[in-house]
Design goal:
This protein is α+β, with helices and mostly antiparallel strands. It has one domain (about 1-205). The chain is built from six helices and nine strands; from the N terminus they run βααββββαββββααα. Helix 1 runs parallel beside helix 6. Residues about 1-5 and about 135-140 have low confidence and may be disordered. InterPro entries: SH3_domain_YSC84-like, Ysc84_actin-binding.
Length: about 220
């Protein structure tokens, strides 16, 4: 059985946590390329705790941002992540992940909010972790930061769902993830200031690798 739970609850806190996760998991310049960012339609960042013996269930939470056609990034939407799978797995770890998604995966997971099914291979030892999805999230990249030791090969489904309560608390009104991610909202400067460090980091990252040749 697997149990996972996020330790962050407020969207402003998650923005700070997401920035730290990105700084940690993207220290390796090979973790993400210029081509990845150019093709990216979304970025989801989450922080979870897990323990597994055999098959099981996993749940965590974080935030998602959309990359607009003109290259800028949207405001964040709070999301929860649920995974249900079957297969051999063993270990315990704390891990954070930043997933860069292509158009198909982004729209399916965060606009339509449909289950994604596929085979997943995960391994972690100390600060290093890796995940491989086969016919799963349609990921471009999945860099991971972890603590502990874990190995698992499972077949199952993953669902990301918007957290309407946290979004409403952060933006001061009830609002859908679609409105947030497509930029169809007007928000206060206070909200923007909570996200500005994330935007600045992503802009800086793109500038750092702008001369990297497309692979």
């Amino acid at each position: 059985m697997t149990w996972e739970n996020s330790h962050t609850t407020d969207l402003a806190v998650r923005c700070s946590s997401a920035l730290q996760i990105l700084q940690d998991v993207l220290k390796n310049r090979d973790a993400i390329s210029k081509k990845d960012l150019e093709e990216a339609h979304g970025l989801v960042i989450f922080d979870v705790k897990g323990i597994a013996v055999g098959t099981g269930f996993a749940h965590g939470s974080g935030l998602v941002m959309a990359r607009h056609a003109k290259g800028d990034w949207s405001l964040p939407s709070s999301v929860s992540r649920t995974y249900v799978g079957a297969g051999p797995s063993l270990g315990a770890n704390l891990y954070s992940s930043a997933r860069v998604l292509n158009k198909e995966a982004f729209e399916k997971c965060f606009i339509e909010q449909r289950w994604e099914y596929g085979m997943n291979l995960s391994a972690a030892a100390g600060p290093f972790g890796a995940n491989v999805d086969v016919k799963g999230q349609s990921l471009i990249q999945h860099p991971t930061r972890s603590k502990g030791a874990y190995f698992g090969v499972t077949f199952g489904g993953t669902l990301f769902e918007e957290n309407k309560e946290l979004n409403a608390k952060f933006y001061g009104k009830e609002i859908s993830a679609r409105e947030i991610l497509t930029g169809k909202i007007q928000v206060s400067e206070a909200c923007k200031n909570e996200v500005r460090s994330l935007w600045d980091f992503l802009t800086s990252l793109e500038k750092q690798i702008e001369n990297e040749p497309v692979q």
